[in-house]
Write a structure and sequence with these properties.
The structure is a homodimer. Chain A is mostly helical. Chain A folds into two domains: about 30 residues; about 100 residues, Winged helix-like DNA-binding domain superfamily/Winged helix DNA-binding domain (Arc Repressor Mutant, subunit A, Orthogonal Bundle), CATH 1.10.10. In chain A, about 65% of the residues lie in helices and about 10% in strands. The first copy, chain A, has seven helices and three strands, in the order αααβααββαα. Chain A has a three-stranded antiparallel beta sheet with strand order 1-3-2. In chain A, a hairpin with a 5-residue loop joins strand 2 and strand 3. The first copy, chain A, is elongated. Chains A and B meet through helix 1, helix 2, helix 3 and helix 7 of A and helix 1, helix 2, helix 3 and helix 7 of B. Chain B binds a DNA duplex (20 and 20 nucleotides) through helix 1 and helix 5.
Amino acid sequence: MTYTAEQKRNEAQKDYNASLALCPAGQLLEAISSKWVTLVILALVEGPQRHSNLRKTIPGASQKMLTSTLRSLERDGLISRRITVTTPIRTDYELTSRGRSLLPIVFEMKKWAEENMHDIGASRMAHDRHQLDFG
Amino acid sequence: MTYTAEQKRNEAQKDYNASLALCPAGQLLEAISSKWVTLVILALVEGPQRHSNLRKTIPGASQKMLTSTLRSLERDGLISRRITVTTPIRTDYELTSRGRSLLPIVFEMKKWAEENMHDIGASRMAHDRHQLDFG
DNA sequence: CTGTATCCTCTAAGATACTG
DNA sequence: CAGTATCTTAGAGGATACAG
């Protein structure tokens, strides 16, 4: 049985993905770059927040997404969860020191996003219009 | 017709998503945080690269994903594409100045990821083991 | 070499309802 | 209030074949 160059390349890809998955950065970038991670971290900058409070602060996230984002961050040791067994129950989320070590990056991303939002919007429109004309 | 508090909250969410989508940061974070964006940008740090070269540098990405990532970055004005009409055809991708303005952030993310990869791996294992025992 | 088009699968994520 | 479970669906992404 023979392979084309294309097929060989596909095999190489599979091997690569199976073993190292991605470059060192890649693994964590996925964890950090989830749609809501940055927003949750920013919401916790000022201090511990209750679950219900986070929902108000980040109305774009469904409860399901919020919970799963929080679980994921907890698993990675970026936030901690403290439960107070009252009725009704109460839970507070807080950045760990490792979570706080991400703050400089998160702030920079926020800053960059705010500074470039306008221009990127313009680029997109220009690009899309060009697609309409010639695409 | 009456609504429960839960339903009202869901409605509020929809409105929010429909109008502002997300906070200023959110819009762009999605663009930046795609699985391959960081890797492509890092691959272009040293200078322009051909399509085939990028495939070699980032073997984890299928051609489809690579192309669509490149298109997305081009649309946002973060990279430029120059085509040379020879046979076979040749295309080179290069960071624009706006793309280069992302480099400090990308480097910091890479650095953070490398520094914390080990500890986060440990946290995950501990967390997962706990789940097995008590979850 | 660089890309597009097709098909197909599988997961992310929303809606909803329910438990402690 | 905080969280889980279930159902369902849109879309991301892989495999493959083809085109300029």
